[in-house]
Amino acid sequence: MILKKLISFAAAAVMTAAAVYISPAELTMSASANTLEDKEFIVGFDAEFPPYGYKDDNGEYVGFDLDLAQEVCDRNGWTLKKQPIEWNSKDMELKNGTIDCLWNGFTMNGRESKYTWSVPYVDNSQVVIVKDNSGINELDDLAGKIVAVQADSSALAALTGEDATEENLALAESFKDLQQVGDYNSAFMNLDSGAVDAIAMDIGVASYEMNSRGGGFKMLDDHLSAEEYGVGFLLGNTELRDAVQNTLFDMLDDGTFEKIAKDWGLEESVCLSRDEVTENGNVSDSAVAKDKKPGFGEKFANISSQLLRGLLASALIFVLTIILSMPLGLLVMAGRMSKFAPLRWLIKLYISIARGTPLMLQLLVVFFGPYYLFNVHTPPNYRFAAVIIGFTLNYAAYFAEIYRSGIQAVPCGQYEAAEVLGYTRMQTNVKIIFPQMIKNIIPSVTNEVITLVKDTSLAFAVSFTEMFTLAKQIAAAQTTIMPLFIAGVFYYIFNFVVAFVMERIEKKLNYYR
Questions:
Q1: Peptide bond just before 370 cis, omega within 30 deg
Q2: Can you say whether residue 54 is alpha, beta or left, with left for phi > 0 and alpha for psi between -120 and 50 degrees?
Q3: 3-state secondary structure at position 104
Q4: pLDDT tens, 288-324?
Q5: Which of these, 399, 372, 473, 438, lies nearest to 149 by C-alpha position?
Q6: Angle at CA 261, nearest 5°, toward 256 and 262?
Q7: 4, 32, 282, 491: which one has the fewest Cβ atoms less than 10 Å from its Cβ?
Q8: pTM
């Protein structure tokens, strides 16, 4: 009887859900209408992309695009909400309705059918930046060099994308390595320290960055590609696009658009024109990709195979960190418990810094510190070494404190009994104290080891591509959240295996139970 009622209830729930189902298109239109009605215009932008959008010395988000958006809002009586986003997640932000548009030097070329676009308003090119004394003077000189690009950027697309020219594909093939970084500040830090030989990036951003950094860099004369910037809206959201676009045209007519461009030194790059409306500014309202999309199984298998490469990188970080940090933790613990006060306080300071600052910051210090602190140029393969050094130093501090707590949990009577039996100090530690310490600390060590599995994702801070970074890159390229979920499954399986092994070890040590 109960089972019958449950089945009836489930059926009613399904019918109710079907009755109130709203299609994604209807949700989009509803969101658009609500946005206009509520007069809140949410602009998604990369907060590290000057001069289009960034945080200034006063902690305010400013930039050419944000000034345009503010003027649009002022003229329409809207409230502007500046929403900095992780650029790799821009499509998910737009589809979820957490932002209304992408307005941040957003390249239209190659993305024409993925968004509803405004007309182009900036002509842009992809250029290459090198150090003045690099000896690199033209694109052909980049053969055998390490080049950095921002992840999911126009520069990356110009070198490796489906629409990349044969010349650019051949050029990318000639590089020793093409590394993806999270932002242009990291790219310039890599270039300045010698970790990379060149950066491929937007000309507007390149000019701003070079001027801000006071010299030492040069731009190659040859450009990788030419492109146009537009404001990208969710596909089909023409109502909001038209309102923004018509306001931009009004600003063009009365000279406001040109004035804002001059304020940011971009007057030579702007290209806003009413003539572009029917040519390349408006994607068809019903534009939908007509290519046959792979099924779920095929897509899952394809993404999983790509993530496996990143999983191997994550596993390597994990294994090497465990092998190096656990014995180092014993040495740190010995120093922490030393009777020599200067050594004890020095070790306490090290542990305090390691546990009190973010691991991401520590990785940056290990990677960039040799150059910025001591003017030492590190070799190209130092990136992975920096990851291992940073993780090892961080986890050694945690393991040292875990070891110390385990030793202090051993009753003092154990030492006294060993002394009565004639054991030396070394014999006491090895045969009596350490076995009990290990038994005491296994639960705490298990927690740290599981945390390490997840912390491997922080290697992206120094542009080392492990599984989660790779998942974000695939998610951005395919505009789907599936790679992140699959990466989550991989992490869970990884941690399940680790927890299982540690549990077996713990049971083996519980020999009195």
A1: no
A2: beta
A3: strand
A4: 444 456 777 888 888 999 999 899 999 999 999 999 9
A5: 473
A6: 100
A7: 4
A8: 0.72
